[in-house]
Amino acid sequence: MKASGFSSKNPAPSFERAGLELEVRPAKVSDIAHIFDIQAQAGRSLPDATTLTPAIDDDARLVVVAFARGTSGVGDVVGWGKTHYWDHPDGPASEGRYLGGVAVRPDYRRSGVGTALTQARLDWIWRRTSEAWYVVNASNLVSIELHRRWGFVEVARASGSHTTTFDDGVGILMRAARPTIPK
Ligand SMILES: CC(C)(COP(=O)(O)OP(=O)(O)OC[C@H]1O[C@@H](n2cnc3c(N)ncnc32)[C@H](O)[C@@H]1OP(=O)(O)O)[C@@H](O)C(=O)NCCC(=O)NCCS
What residues does 61 pair with on adjacent strands? Predict the structure, then answer.
């Protein structure tokens, strides 16, 4: 356990796109109600609040929210995402750091929020290891498209991976390598 806060988890700075001032910051326990609302609006299963609080408080994982402020100056939590750490492999799915889900409120999609949440989580992962993983429903073409820019490549297909099962029975295990800094 540790104190949470922007400086301790140090995710991404602000992003500006589509007239939105967007800040990605580590989630606080007080954000959980917003996270539930985003999941419900996205038609996704609700996370278990009893596992979300420990994830927020765990230095080995990162839970982030995107806070957007429009031209009116009023702000709201419009997206969230998390990472997961597996300490053991499951078939082709290595132990290691995984992107553990991302969702954006439908009325804020296609404005770079999902990208900002994913960049923040990957920056955090790259500071710890050179490899990132994620699993996705094979039918979730939007998610696959979202992750393409970081060079995720398919490693395997299966009906499940670690504790994840897939909506349509087929999921894809993806892996990306930390970008090298040009000399
Ligand atoms: C997937 C999701 C998080 C994307 O969020 P977003 O804020 O709309 O994503 P961005 O605006 O950053 O889009 C980044 C890129 O993803 C791709 N993308 C996003 N939405 C897309 C769509 N509807 N159709 C095709 N490509 C899409 C595009 O390549 C886009 O880049 P571009 O806008 O420059 O073309 C959002 O659609 C969502 O919450 N979906 C439901 C939950 C979900 O499926 N999560 C993924 C679980 S693994």
Answer: none
